[in-house]
Amino acid sequence: MGALQLALGAVGVAVSVYAWGLFVAGVARMVRTIRLGQPDATRNGPFWPRLRTLVVEFVAHTRMAKLRKVAPWHWMVMWGFLIGSAALFEAYGEVFDPSFHWPVIGAWPVWGLVVELLGIGTVVGGVALAVIRQLNHPRRADRLSRFAGSDFRAAYFVEAVVIVEGLGILGVKAFKLSSGLEDMPLWSSFVTLPLSHLLPDNPDWVSVMAVVKLLSAMLWLVVVAKNLTMGVAWHRFSAFFNIYFKREDDGGVALGALRPMMSGGKVLDLEEADPDEDTFGVGKVEDFTWKGWLDFSTCTECGRCQSQCPAWNTGKPLSPKLVITQLRDHAFAKAPYLLAGGSRDMAGDEVGLTEDKYEDYKKRLESIDVLAMAESERPLIGGAQELGVIDPEVLWSCTTCGACVEQCPVDIEHVDHIVDMRRYQVLIESNFPSELGGMFKNLENKGNPWGQNAKDRLAWTEGLDFDVPVFDGDLGDTEYLFWVGCAGAFEDRAKKTTRAVAELLHTAGVSYTVLGPEETCTGDPARRAGNEFLFQMLAQQNVEVLNAVFEGREPGRRKIVVTCAHCFNTLANEYPQVGGQFEVVHHTQLLNRLVRERRLVPVAEVTEDVTYHDPCYLGRHNKVYEAPRELVGASGANLREMPRHGDRSMCCGAGGARMWMEERIGKRINVDRVDEALGTAPSKIATGCPFCRVMLTDGVTARQNEGQAGAHVEVVDVAQLLLTAVRRGQGTPATAEPETAEA
Fold first, then answer.
1. Are residues 587 and 719 in contact, defined by beta-carbon separation less than 8 angstroms?
2. pLDDT tens, 152-192?
3. What sign does the dihedral 724-730-732-734 (CA atoms) show?
4. What separation in angstroms does the CA of 644 have from each of 146, 255, 692, 699, 732?
5. How far apart are CA 715 and CA 701, in angstroms?
């Protein structure tokens, strides 16, 4: 051990003590901050399924692999960080003693190969990620870049450290070989061994490279410890916890049902709730659960959510990434105030830090930074003049399509957070887009968002050449309850889907019945608009009716078939939250089974080019992708896929109650989707949801009026395609009439 080794070792140890101390303190500060969130007992177990999900997601990179051009490079960097930590700690010995290596495994050629691959993978992966970031820089693609709004300096810092660490690993090994301190075969040192022949025989260089490896890591620790909002760095630790504590313990993403409204870690009973004690949604950042705070802390700013968001892609102010990062920055800036005991009531008055509450009141007050105090006064939702954290235009631009949740590699639950903020705005502030007021009123008074009379729910049956059975109090041997839905009963275009499905079920000999006037809205638009009270009212009313209809039937025989993707999702996934357990199938699933069983036999092929649009609440939220496509194929049509399809399908713009709100900013989402559909040169655009059908039809009509689409292009439901093929060419069915104006 020479003077150089002693000097470098002393520097390395001194810097390490400071860096590790700072980092441990940073971790403790982050944990305390995350625990400021509300309790959430639903994340506690079961242990083994959650652990299995965690292992599968990070080892196989299943979530990251949704962007295949990035996944391999990130995989290399991830393993370089995890296993490379062993090489980092080895540097403490190498600085003092160039010949030092780990006992037992240090001289093992297999370990030498592992270190070689880690070093190479880290360098190559870090460079590749930096190149990808440059190729997708916002200056080149404006809003289209998924990195727009991301912190580039933080990302480049992390990537630079990654590359230096990799070079340090390779450098130490190469100088050990050149100095004769290590003897490794070529197969385990295929880069460093040839390189060692070009390097000097001087052990001092081993210590120099070891301290480079060490100090670069310590610099990283210091920087991230002082910047708790640097998600691109902290996700290396928090992502493991965020994945483990994801909403669905079976590994599924946070789609389908929305989380019930919670308060104090328990599901909120709206009949017994107290506005002075309970939280109604999220009105302040501390109303989010600790898992929400963990979400904010874990965002890597990769922008995958942003790249898939229909609102962002059509010029709206909403970016799921920026929502999360803005909440993160606000949460951590406000944290010192909250940790000191600060709290404000709904009027904004201080109720936490008061002299009568704390003996050390002045000491607590003095401990709060002036910036944290200012941050505590900002409203969570508000415009620029109000210094709001989230602009109302951002909050209400969301279609709840779930593309952000589907794409997020670290399982952030964007939709739940957005709807929770909407709940507070609707239930407490009564602050929501004016168009929703009419929709809420129609749902409350008429039981449907169109405000139509319940007696007209059977108007769609007029003109059919067979009788549609209506429930008369006795289900008998009927196999399915046909849930028509509000759109299917009242919207002219959707009625054609309803008639087509009824005719196909009649042709196949399926016994079914409809509720008629007894049916009301499932409450989907109310819930996604944040009106949880109205949703609960409608849901409980429907569950009571449905339980009476299926009285005496075991769960496996309480079958409901629906044509609306939103009704499908609500009945199947959300009604169990209010006591409704039913076996719900979408009409495309049932019809596809009937075709397979030869109960429906297509005989007259639809020899047309058809593109299929995946409804978000059928596809992404419920993973029903194949059944409607198989029906398109069964009808004889030639399926032409749009570039964005399957789990990457583009929303039509109707979800999240946007069906009843005007689009005043940017390009209309439905027109954007129609443009993509028209790019496949179809004669028909097929879908499996009445909301999608309305939106796409309006988009096609707009393009036809502008001369950008042929008059022959029409939007149909897949059931209509199948009916055309099954009817043996017996004239034109009523369900295939030209589209009419929206009711």
1. yes
2. 999 999 999 999 999 999 999 999 999 999 999 999 999 99
3. negative
4. 16, 19, 15, 17, 32
5. 10
Note the pLDDT of residue 209: 94
Q: What is the pLDDT of residue 84?
A: 85
CA pair distance 448, 524, nearest whole angstrom: 11
| Crossing angle between the packed helical segments 718-726 and 626-634, to the nearest 10 degrees | 30
Give the tokens for residue 725. 């093929």
247 DSSP 8-state letter: S
What span, in angstroms and rounded, lies between the C-alpha atoms of 182 and 199? 14
What pLDDT is attached to residue 728?
61
Give the E-state strand segments of 103-235 in sequence order: none
How far apart CA 657 and CA 655 sit, in angstroms, is 5
Residue 374: Cβ within 10 Å count: 13
State the Cα torsion 269-274-280-284 to the nearest 10°.
Answer: -150
Is the previous residue joined to 628 through a cis bond, with omega within 30 degrees of 0?
A: no
Kind of pairing, strands 262-263 and 266-267?
A: antiparallel
CA–CA distances in Å: residue 670 to residues 51, 164, 286, 561, 658: 40, 47, 36, 27, 11
Q: Which amino acid is at 23?
A: F
Q: What is the DSSP letter of 266?
A: E
Could you tell me the CA-to-CA distances from 348 to 37, 135, 284, 352, 377 in Å, in that order?
Answer: 19, 46, 10, 11, 7
Nearest of 288, 292, 291, 287 to residue 277 by alpha carbon: 287
Q: How far apart are CA 608 and CA 502, in angstroms?
A: 24
Q: How far apart are CA 191 and CA 213, in angstroms?
A: 18
Q: Do 377 and 366 form a contact (C-beta atoms < 8 A)?
A: no
Tokens 């050390």 correspond to: 360
Which letter does DSSP use for residue 136 in this model? T
Give the whole-angstrom CA distance, residue 94 versus residue 172.
9
Q: How far apart are the first and last CA of the chain?
A: 87
Q: How far apart are CA 565 and CA 439, in angstroms?
A: 19
